Structure formats: structure tokens, C-alpha cells
């Protein structure tokens, strides 16, 4: 590993620029501004690279030349070709470079302030205020303004969110899927198929190329994997043991499915305990290491939130805020299960147990319902549905209680439970091929 620990400022800045040119995605992470670089040529080069990356998601010297005739193409290739290629530790290198550059930047400003004070260009009280402001410059706050001018805001007619499809047509038609950078809260009564459907979301996500991490507070990894393999298989790849009265996945299918899931599905090891700090820390490391884009946390009741304090509702509020921030920071979609409190009425969003912030902060809120006699009685009372209402033909229901992007609420999606495979189907004869058969 090459460490950026030079005493020479010029070398640090050139190595920092080399990181940008060899790893363009650094521009999505860096907190350094062009003005921090003392070398004016490098500063202008960085400014043009940032502009190009924002427009094209890549630094392309042809595109930069089209817009800027003063683009120093010689410096671009000098840095690109003369600095060694970087290995997988580039994020650590970035942090080291940034810390050094900010240190030098602050030293430059301090020298300038001292000169102004000595030349009596500023009073001592002004000097003290500027030094205090200078000391507050850190990488953590990214030097962002608290109040933005309009010129600071990058305007776009279309906010390009990336959605992971549920592959339930009637659901995706309304909400497009589950956007990266967002948080969904799931609830529902006992046996409403919350965990079952979230397992299916994991499979659907993986089939679209999105690696997934699952924390299950109720199932050990071995049992969770067994359940997911069954859902991957579908009933046509399963057999029935009459003597023991259970369905099992055929050995050939099981081998292919586990091979297909390997490197795509990751399960939190419950042997590490249920402290939320440990869970989130482990998941965050796994997201970065395994390029995961979907996190499933099942469920709130199984997590120890003592890291946040003793007050139940305060701890839940702080935790849900951190989850929402984590989804944005890592650009992932987090599915989070929260159980409802015991109620006698038809389950509503306000019946989700815990702090009101659990649903206020979430981008989406879903409730799973099982279509049984209790469901029929309560929906007839609340919605005045008649006996022939289409929702009564299903075994399970997803209710969209809140969707921030499109304002969808009180929208019901019907599903059929397939007993053999534990799948939830859009229609009774639905068959899905998740791609594992090619393994």
C-alpha cells in the first residue's frame, strides 16, 4: 500500500489529483474544494474535473477540452501517467491526503491573517473571530453553508433516483420500486408474512444485480438461508416428504441456488449479539466491502438500543434518524421492520409501536395484512367493502400507507401465498426464474 504521508505539500497535492484521475469516483466522496490546493494549475484542473464528473459521472479529457480551451492537457496526462496506479486502499489514501491538504490550507490562511494583523489591516477582535472560524474548518462538516444561495443549488428538472423493482407490477406501477438513498418501514400483525415478503425482496433485488444484507433478530443464519432457498426454488423445484409432512428443495436446485446467492446475499451473524451499534457497524463495513445496495433489518424489537440511552422513544427517534442518514450516506435502500402495538381495530400507520418518528422520518411505510376473517370484518367496518371486494380473493395484502415520492397512501396490493415454496405471488399461477438455473 502506498501511503500519502509526504512532508512536501506539492507531492501530496499531485498524489491527491492522481487519485481523482485514476479513481473518478473519488470526486463523489472528496470533501476538498479546488481552493484548498496551493498549486493553481492543479486547482483549475480539479475544478474542471469536478464539473465534468457532475455532468458525465466520469472525467473525460475530450469533454473538458470542448468546454475549456485553457484546459492543461499536458498536466492532465503528466499526472495520469507518471504517478503509480493505486490499489484497493484508495479510500484510506483519500482521507490521508484530505487531512494533509486541509492542514496546509489552514496554515496558509493563518499566516495571511497574521500578516494582516501585523500590517494593521485588521483589528485584533476581527483577527480573533477569523481564527475561530478558521479552526472550525474540518472535513466532517465539508465547509457547507447552513443557508444556501440559489446559485449554490444545482437545479434539475428530473431528480434521477435509482429504483429497485419489487417486481409486483401493481406495486411498482404506483411507487416505481424502492429508491436508493431511502428508508422503508414495514409492519403488520402476526403471520402477516412481513419477514416472508422481505426475504422475497432480497431475492428480487439480487436478481436485478443489487447485493443484499439481512439482519434477522428471530432466525439464525442457517434457518434464514433455508427459507430463502425455498423461495428461490419455487414449487417446481421442490419435493414432498409424506412421512415427515414437509416440502424440501431438490438437491440439484439447492446446489445451484446457494452458488447463485454466494457473493450476493450476506447475513449478519447473530452470535455477535444484538447491540445496534455493533449491527450497524458490521453492516456498514459489509456494504463497502461487498458493494451491497439493500439492507433488511428484521426487526426493531430484537435490537438492543442502549447505545442511544435509556428513554425508549428518544432512542427510537435517534435510531430512525441515523438509519435515514445511513441510507443517504451509503446510497442504499433500507427495509426496517417495526411491530405494531396490540390493537382491536384495523391496523393503521399510527398503530406501529414506538416513537412517531419511526413513520414520520421513513420515506415509505407499508403494512402487511393476512386476509382472514378478522381482516374481512374490520375492512368492511372501516372501508364499507362488500363481500365481493377483489381484495378478499387474495391470501395476503401489502398496504402502502405512505410514499413520499408520489404521495401514494391507502393503496392495497393483493398477493397469493404459495405454501410449498413460501413465495408470495402476484397471481396464482405465477412462476419466477431468478437466474439460478444457469449456475
Structure explained in plain terms:
This protein is 42% helix and 15% strand. The chain has 439 residues and is an alpha/beta fold. It has a 9-stranded mixed β-sheet, with helices on both faces. A two-stranded antiparallel sheet has the order 1-2. Strands 5-6 form a two-stranded antiparallel sheet. Strand 11 and strand 12 (411-418) form a beta hairpin. The longest helix is centred in the N-terminal third of the chain and has 29 residues, at 90-118. The two termini are 36 Å apart. Residues 1-6 have low confidence and may be disordered.
Descriptive keywords:
nine-stranded mixed β-sheet, two-stranded antiparallel ribbon, elongated, 439 residues, alpha/beta
- Going across the biggest sheet, name each strand in turn: 7-4-8-9-3-10-11-12-13
Quick one: how many beta strands? 13
**Secondary-structure element sequence?**
HHHHHHEHEEHEHEEHEHEHEHEHEEE
Report the uncertain regions: 1-6
Let me know the largest β-sheet.
Answer: 9 strands, mixed
Average pLDDT works out at: 88
Alpha-carbon distance between the two ends: 36 Å
Topology:
Elements: H1 9-22, H2 40-56, H3 61-67, H4 73-82, H5 90-118, H6 124-135, E1 163-164, H7 169-175, E2 178-179, E3 183-188, H8 194-207, E4 211-216, H9 221-233, E5 238-241, E6 246-249, H10 251-261, E7 265-267, H11 276-290, E8 292-298, H12 312-330, E9 333-337, H13 357-360, E10 364-370, H14 373-383, E11 396-403, E12 411-418, E13 423-425
Amino acid at each position: 500500500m502506498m501511503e500519502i504521508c509526504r512532508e512536501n505539500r506539492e507531492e501530496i497535492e499531485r498524489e491527491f489529483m492522481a487519485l481523482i484521475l485514476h479513481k473518478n469516483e473519488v470526486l463523489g466522496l472528496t470533501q476538498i474544494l479546488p481552493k484548498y490546493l496551493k498549486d493553481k494549475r492543479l486547482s483549475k484542473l480539479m475544478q474542471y474535473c469536478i464539473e465534468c464528473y457532475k455532468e458525465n459521472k466520469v472525467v473525460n479529457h475530450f469533454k473538458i477540452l470542448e468546454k475549456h480551451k485553457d484546459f492543461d492537457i499536458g498536466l492532465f496526462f503528466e499526472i495520469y501517467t507518471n504517478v503509480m496506479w493505486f490499489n484497493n486502499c484508495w479510500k484510506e489514501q483519500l482521507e490521508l491526503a484530505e487531512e494533509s491538504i486541509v492542514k496546509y490550507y489552514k496554515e496558509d490562511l493563518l499566516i495571511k491573517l497574521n500578516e494582516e494583523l501585523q500590517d494593521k489591516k485588521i483589528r485584533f477582535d476581527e483577527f480573533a473571530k477569523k481564527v475561530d472560524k478558521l479552526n472550525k474548518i474540518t472535513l466532517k462538516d465539508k465547509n457547507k453553508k447552513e443557508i444556501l444561495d440559489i446559485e449554490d443549488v444545482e437545479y434539475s428538472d428530473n431528480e434521477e433516483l435509482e429504483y429497485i423493482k419489487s417486481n409486483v407490477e401493481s406495486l411498482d406501477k404506483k411507487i416505481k420500486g424502492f429508491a436508493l438513498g431511502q428508508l422503508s418501514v414495514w409492519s403488520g400483525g402476526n403471520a402477516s408474512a412481513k419477514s416472508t415478503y422481505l426475504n422475497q425482496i432480497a431475492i428480487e433485488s439480487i436478481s436485478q444485480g443489487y447485493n443484499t444484507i439481512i439482519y434477522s433478530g428471530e432466525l439464525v443464519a442457517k434457518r434464514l438461508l433455508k427459507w430463502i432457498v425455498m423461495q428461490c426454488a419455487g414449487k417446481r423445484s421442490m419435493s414432498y416428504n409424506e412421512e415427515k409432512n414437509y416440502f424440501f428443495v431438490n438437491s440439484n436446485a439447492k446446489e445451484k441456488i446457494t452458488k447463485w446467492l454466494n457473493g450476493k446475499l450476506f447475513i449478519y451473524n447473530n452470535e455477535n449479539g444484538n447491540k445496534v451499534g455493533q449491527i450497524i457497524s458490521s453492516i456498514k463495513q459489509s456494504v463497502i466491502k461487498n458493494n451491497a445496495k439493500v439492507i433488511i433489518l428484521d426487526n426493531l424489537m430484537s435490537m438492543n438500543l442502549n447505545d442511544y440511552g435509556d428513554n425508549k422513544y428518544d432512542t427510537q427517534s435517534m435510531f430512525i434518524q441515523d438509519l435515514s442518514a445511513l441510507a443517504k450516506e451509503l446510497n442504499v435502500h433500507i427495509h426496517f421492520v417495526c411491530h405494531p402495538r396490540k390493537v382491536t381495530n384495523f391496523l393503521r400507520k399510527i398503530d406501529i409501536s414506538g416513537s412517531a418518528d419511526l413513520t414520520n422520518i421513513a420515506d415509505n411505510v407499508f403494512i402487511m395484512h393476512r386476509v382472514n376473517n378478522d381482516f374481512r370484518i374490520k375492512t368492511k367496518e372501516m372501508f364499507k367493502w362488500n363481500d365481493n371486494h377483489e381484495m378478499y380473493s387474495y391470501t395476503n395484502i401489502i398496504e402502502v400507507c405512505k410514499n413520499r415520492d408520489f404521495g401514494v397512501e391507502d393503496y392495497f396490493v393483493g398477493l397469493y401465498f404459495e405454501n410449498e415454496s413460501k413465495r408470495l405471488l402476484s397471481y396464482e399461477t405465477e412462476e419466477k426464474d431468478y437466474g439460478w438455473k444457469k449456475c
